[in-house]
Amino acid sequence: MPRADVALLCEVRQGTRPWKRVQLEDLSVGGFRIAAMPEARREVPLRIRIPGMHLLSARICWQRDGAIGCEFAEPLHVAVFEHIARQACV
């Protein structure tokens, strides 16, 4: 599965918590990594707003040193992934 190193400021939210600005660092059609969100809870689904896209749902798969890895509830279309990767690659 292709991956892209990106640098993209996004907003995430879990449950009724306020939206939080985070750095999206890694992206694939199936998921993503956020640089730092130490307060994230694995059992609570996550919502993410990537600029220029509709609201997406994901689940947390892993947490390490404050960073989190997530899997999209519905994979991105390849064309959407490629568009984001072109716009935000580091």
Features:
90 residues; mainly beta; Thrombin, subunit H; six-stranded antiparallel barrel; 12% helix
Question: Could you walk me through the main structural features you see in this protein, from its secondary elements to its overall organization?
Answer:
This protein has one domain: predicted glycosyltransferase like domains (Thrombin, subunit H), CATH 2.40.10.220. It has one helix at about 80-90; strands at about 5-15, 20-30, 30-35, 45-50, 55-65, 65-70. It is mainly beta and about 90 residues long. It is built from 1 helix and 6 strands, in the order ββββββα. It has a 6-stranded antiparallel beta barrel. A hairpin with a 2-residue loop joins β2 and β3.
